DNA sequence: TTTAGCACTCTCGATCGCTGAGTGCCATCC
DNA sequence: GGATGGCACTCAGCGATCGAGAGTGCTAAA
């Protein structure tokens, strides 16, 4: 009973089960794959694989189904990378390059993944914490209120209102010229800096502007640092939820738990950042600690402009998914997205 | 056979069916509602209601179920407004007021509606076309590229990149001072104007800046007008998709068509703007022309800062929904949202 | 070590009959 | 004329039964 053939049998089972969605028996296995042995032999191998925990049978007299461990082995050692077709690549490229702004790019990336994989797509917004500051804008909107707009070098734009601490004094000081000066100082201080360096740089600005403006400058500085530091203000784009319904019968527990998990964006974000890895990361079934996703697998990849990863995107589907295809699609979209992002 | 009692019977049927989710027969009707007549009498009324098309029976020897027309009659003439409870109102108020920016407000509004109605919530972003321009920001990001940030008076922020038309000439002209002047001119021209007036106002600016800057100014002006004019760039927030799965069995055709309809944001937007009305608008089942939503009802309301509606929000659920409750919730959230929005 | 044969198990689908809910109609009553 | 009680009729749903087929595990032979 060769070790090699046993793995081959596992691969065959996974591939067959993924396409047919039905437990696969020893007979069809010999028919559809050139294994060169009889069903009886396969049965022996299958008994061994079951013993090792890679496959299981839903009930006596049904075929075998891969377990989470089986998929894991498949992904780690058996799956061959299946490159996308040229038309697919071209489609990704053109579709992404038609985007008008960052939001649009991310939405399009999501749609692409959803369509390519036939599953749910998840795209995380470029992390504010991993971004640099490109530009800071300060706009007066009322006597005691400013609107502060932060533009990161990944193209993300965040706005916050800033209540001015000052009294009549503070307010009167805020004419156009003063504001312009403040803006210029902040932007000069932030130029080329990493986010981590901002608090120090801004503190220096607050020092430098003199006592008259210190209050206002301090408020703005705090607000910006606060905005960029908040990990929980991260956002996510979802796409292809309808695809879930199509593979509805796949989820024993029904769609509810999955949909609920997808709505918990905070948790989802945790999952993504946790899985964030250099290459492509795969979590299978119970490897996800999340309750709602124990019947699902998650495939993610980092993306980011030039080398530095700024966020994560991926695809979520039933454990019985086309891993090679999904991995290829996620990887490809992440690459092209990285290329398109403003650097 | 009094007309009055027949309507009372219809109301009873709708209310019972909504709560029990099961066809309701003449016997339970007399038991649960004080109609003061015998089942036999109810049966006569029911026969008449069926004749008129307000109710139907799924199969012989099953109870009756309201038709779309029945729900319509119920909503138009029989439903009593059921005001929210004080705690509910307070919850809405505090939850909305905790939002940090526009995106956050809209997401929170969506969650509220989803939670209150137990259905899917839809919140349209404040329409750019119906907004005024609060501030325009121009940021240089490269030698031949500007980032133009548009802030509307509803707090919405849009950014676009602007490729500069100029040659070496045009580029050299773009120092900080020139840019500041351009920004000041545009903002002065836009102050207090409605969107419709912008093209003219901006054209004047382009005239005024002189030939050196006309190219750049023109490009910026075009971009802004284009950005604000694009109806298709509207956006939508969805919430509570998981609620669908819970009422899964309700949809004969399954969830797919509904989820697909929800993903077609363009179509959904069309529906919302089409339904936009002064009070609360209700579309029941087949009244929605959209294929995916023939088994669903949509309840919407406009919202907007001070009087002027700027967008629409609503709730989508099975035709068998709690109309009075849904209408009350949607209405309430729309009102509070209008109050919280920056004006 | 592989293979053929065989007995065994269990799911799935079809069939059948029953029960109960609900209706429609008719004769009767007020 | 409208309301009511009685009654026969229909039909979905449920459970039980049964047979077919798929698939396995085991054993003995190649």
Automatic annotation (TrEMBL), chains A, B:
This is Heat-inducible transcription repressor HrcA. Residues 103-327 form the Heat-inducible transcription repressor HrcA C-terminal domain. InterPro entries: DeoR_HTH, GAF-like_dom_sf, HrcA, HrcA_C, WH-like_DNA-bd_sf, WH_DNA-bd_sf, WHTH_transcript_rep_HrcA_IDD. HAMAP family: HrcA. Residues 34-60 form the HTH deoR-type domain. Negative regulator of class I heat shock genes (grpE-dnaK-dnaJ and groELS operons). Prevents heat-shock induction of these operons. It comes from the Bacteria. Pfam families: HrcA, HTH_DeoR. Belongs to the HrcA family. Keywords: Repressor, Stress response, Transcription, Transcription regulation.
């Amino acid at each position: 009973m060769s070790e090699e053939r046993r793995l081959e049998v596992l691969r065959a089972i996974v591939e067959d089960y993924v396409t047919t969605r039905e437990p696969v028996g020893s007979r069809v296995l010999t028919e559809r794959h050139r294994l060169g042995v009889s069903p009886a032999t396969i049965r022996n191998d299958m008994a061994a694989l079951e013993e090792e925990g890679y496959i299981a049978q839903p009930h006596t007299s049904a075929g075998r189904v891969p377990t989470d461990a089986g998929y894991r082995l498949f992904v780690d050692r058996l799956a061959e990378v299946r490159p996308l077709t040229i038309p697919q690549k071209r489609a990704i490229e053109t579709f992404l390059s038609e985007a008008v702004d960052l939001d649009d790019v991310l939405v399009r990336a999501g749609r692409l993944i959803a369509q390519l994989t036939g599953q749910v797509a998840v795209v995380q917004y470029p992390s504010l914490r991993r971004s640099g500051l490109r530009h800071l804008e300060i706009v007066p909107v009322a006597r005691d209120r400013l609107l502060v707009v932060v533009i990161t070098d990944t193209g993300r734009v965040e706005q916050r209102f800033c209540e001015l601490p000052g009294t009549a004094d503070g307010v009167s000081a805020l004419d156009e010229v003063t504001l312009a000066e403040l803006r210029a100082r902040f932007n000069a201080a932030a130029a080329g800096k990493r986010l981590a360096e901002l608090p120090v740089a801004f503190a220096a600005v607050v020092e430098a502007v003199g006592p008259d403006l210190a209050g206002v400058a301090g408020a703005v500085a705090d607000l910006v640092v606060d905005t960029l530091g908040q990990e929980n203000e991260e956002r996510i784009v979802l796409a292809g939820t309808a695809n879930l319904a199509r593979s509805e019968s796949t989820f024993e527990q029904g769609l509810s738990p999955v949909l609920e998990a997808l709505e918990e964006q905070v948790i989802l974000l945790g999952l993504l950042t946790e899985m964030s890895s250099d290459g492509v990361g795969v979590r299978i079934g119970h490897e996800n600690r999340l309750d709602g996703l124990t019947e699902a697998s998650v495939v993610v990849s980092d993306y980011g402009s030039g080398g530095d990863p700024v966020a994560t995107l991926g695809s979520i589907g039933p454990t019985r998914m086309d891993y090679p295809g999904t991995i290829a699609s996620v990887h490809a979209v992440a690459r092209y997205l990285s290329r398109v992002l403003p650097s």
